């Protein structure tokens, strides 16, 4: 096979891969570096949405599809609408992000994008050989964002849950949605010994993304997700006539497994493959955006990529939370309901963003039910 050489190879043109590529071409340090970006998809379809909360104007505000200043939480015995200022809940469509990133990449001669599937990577210690279906490439350093569950299931130190979901964008005949309020979690649906909720993002009074979401170990048959959404439309919203304009679905790993174990001297796993998804929530987009500058600084300091470490005290909190859900998955709604009943959304968002002080950590933790976490702590210690 023919072999071409690059300074950097980025495998996967999702959020992490594209954020890294665009950050590199913006930085003068990388101006003489060659970058190869590989993905089996042309990234021409709207295959996903990313949502996040943020204070003020953010770097991706120009491509926001929708934003909300209020969220709604509903549990079994408690519900409330929260004003979340100074935060805004924001949504980006996949296709808009891809077009935004590729437009930036197209202005640089440094980056070569190829639509091809990566079959194998081999770190020789001096360089990395990346094999695709029709050609091999050599990279001095490789950044891999392709995740598979084998990365986390061949160990038993940390539980592995999944945030799995199916969503429909529906248009209704009647104006049934409040387009100013995003339903962050609705636990009023049947739990069936899992953590299950509905997530509703209204775009207009008659149009919304409705997503059936679970935090659990195992996926469901597709028909179960579909039935749950149909039932919710009828029983909770009184909607019997609607059009399904688009669908999305997926599974995000929820684990505190230390993904550094899969790094090598010249291969760094990034994005979901690097454990960059927040273990306790599955939110990845902003978590990735915060880590990219740290990675860039790490490279500019000529530090070994394999020892890049993002672990902090919040990692330990996530360990306990996932231990609780792994031990008793039906407890999820009770934990979230107690938390939203006792604390405001701003503190919850700040804690999940890992930006709270230790005092605020204690305040947040004290708003949670105590006994499940105390038991999880003792199980983890002993």
**Hey, roughly how much beta strand do the residues contain?**
25-35%
- Give the mean pLDDT: 96
H and E order: EHEEEEEEHEEEEHEEEEHEEHHHHHH
- Helix run count: 10
The rough form would be described as globular
Oligomer: single chain
Sheet/helix structural class: alpha/beta
Distance N terminus to C terminus? Answer: 53 Å
Please describe the biggest sheet, giving its number of strands, its sense, and whether it closes into a barrel: 7 strands, mixed
Alpha-carbon Rg, integer: 21 Å
Low-confidence stretches are none
Annotation, overall tally of beta strands: 17
Helix content: 25-40%
Outline the structure in words.
This protein is of the alpha/beta class. It contains 10 helices and 17 strands. The protein has helices at residues 15-26, 94-106, 150-153, 222-235, 285-300, 313-327, 332-342, 345-352, 358-366, 370-381; strands spanning 3-11, 35-39, 49-55, 66-68, 70-74, 79-83, 87-93, 111-115, 118-123, 128-132, 136-144, 161-172, 181-186, 195-204, 207-216, 242-254, 267-269. The strands form 3 sheets. Strands 1, 2, 8, 9, 10, 11 and 17 form a 7-stranded mixed sheet that branches. Strands 6-5-13-14-15-12-16 form a 7-stranded mixed sheet, with helices on both faces. α1 (15-26) packs parallel to α2 and α1 crosses α5. It is globular. The chain starts with a strand and ends with a helix.
